[in-house]
Amino acid sequence: MTVQPENPLLYTAGYRLGPLVEEETFARLCRSRDFLVANIDQPVRLDDTASVACLSPFHFHRMFARAFGETPHEFLRRQRIERAKQLLARDHVPVTEVCLSVGYESLGSFSTLFRSMVGQSPAQYRRAIRRIFPAPALAIHRFVPACYLMDFGARPF
Questions:
Q1: Total-model pTM
Q2: Within a domain: residue 1?
Q3: I need a labelling partner for 90 at 20 to 30 A (CA). Which of 20, 25, 44, 50 fits?
Q4: DSSP states of 11-80 as a string?
Q5: pLDDT in tens, 88-130
């Protein structure tokens, strides 16, 4: 007994419309997308990324947007903001260092972009995350040798 799909147009769209890009071009685009992610902290030019995909810059930009639904600049910007969110939530580094480590040179432009994409400034985001997932306080006794603690009346954990 065969099961009929509830809407056959959903299952045949790929056959009717054809692929958005050819398979070889898609592999090149994936290689260039990996290049963008690998160089997230560096200034990347469209020409450099297009050369990784072995395409002209104009054709690369058009094919990238068609295949992934966003331009290379939008992709790189989104990846940088996601990386900044991870660093702000995890590390105790200043916002300026986070800004520089994700490839932005200006704290003002980074903060403005961060606020427009996330809805909060980087400092507000860090405080909000710390309220949800508090960073554990350092237990200083963990860094003191057990023999020293036992000699002075403290019990080791």
A1: 0.71
A2: no
A3: 44
A4: HHHHHHH--SS-HHHHHHHHHHHHHHHHTTTS---HHHHHHHTTS-HHHHHHHHHHHHSS-HHHHHHHHH
A5: 988 678 999 999 999 999 999 999 999 999 999 999 999 888 7
| Residue 3 is assigned to a structural domain of this protein | no
In a domain, 2, yes or no: no
Determine how many CB atoms are found less than 10 A away from the CB of residue 24.
9
Nearest to 44 by CA among 62, 55, 57: 57
For 119, half-sphere exposure in the C-beta direction (CA atoms, 13 angstrom radius) is 1
Domain of 17 in residue numbering reads as 8-69
In Å, how far are 20, 24, 59, 103 from 53, measured between CA atoms?
Answer: 17, 10, 10, 22
Q: What is the dihedral of CA 21, 51, 72, 98, to 10 degrees?
A: 140
Distance (Å, whole) CA 44 – CA 82: 17
